[in-house]
Every structure is written in structure tokens, then in C-alpha cells.
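We emphasize that the prediction below concerns an isolated chain of 127 residues; any contacts that depend on oligomerization or on bound cofactors are therefore not represented. The input was used exactly as deposited, without trimming of termini.
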Amino acid sequence: MYQPKLKKDIRCPLEYGLDIFGGKWKSRIICVLAEQETLRYSVLRREMSNITDAVLTTALRELSADEIIDRQQFDEIPPRVEYRLTEKGKSVVPILQSICRWSGIYHNESSELSLPQCQKCNFYGSK
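Result of the prediction step, given as a C-alpha cell string:
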């Protein structure tokens, strides 16, 4: 299992939350899995569009270590791995949707440029 080299110095619950689902990629991964439920690595990567394999792999390991996603490996040839949100991961989705609604009020971005899973957030049209 993935082991970080340095122990995290988290002193506040907000820091913990931002460490778990903050950043560019982790929140997107959570949103894609919330919409699609269970995805294989290749499909998840395609849904993420411009992410590198190294960054996706690292983010998935961290989300798995933090018990946000579940990684299931099947004993098959060729190997098959599927990812899905855990209950803890599903509990993050309303938080991310709230952030999307807040962002929709203060950030003007064309919905044509947004990701498909972002277009399903409830903030579009609520300005």
C-alpha cells in the first residue's frame, strides 16, 4: 500500500478536508466516480481527459489510502481493476456540490467548457 514519505502535519479539520479532497484532480476523480459509480482505470483516465498516468495513479493511491475510494482488483488475464467511492467518499459529494454552487455564483465560466459531471451540479441557472 502507498506510504507517504513524510507524516502530514494537520492541525485543523479544514486542513484535513482540503488534504483529502482538495486540489485539481482529487475532487474531479470523486465527481467522476459519483456520476459513474464504478469505473475501470482506462475509462476513468479518459473521463479525466488531460491527466497523466503518474498523476492519476498517485491521486488514486492517496484517495484509497484515505478510504475515499475502493480499489478492487480481479484475478483475470488481462488484469482488471475497478474503482468506486466508499461511503466516506460518497459523504464528500454534497460538500463538493456546495462548492460548485458557490463557485457558480462568483465564477463566470461557460458551461460549454465545463466537464460533463460538472454540468450536472445544481448551480447552473441558479445565479
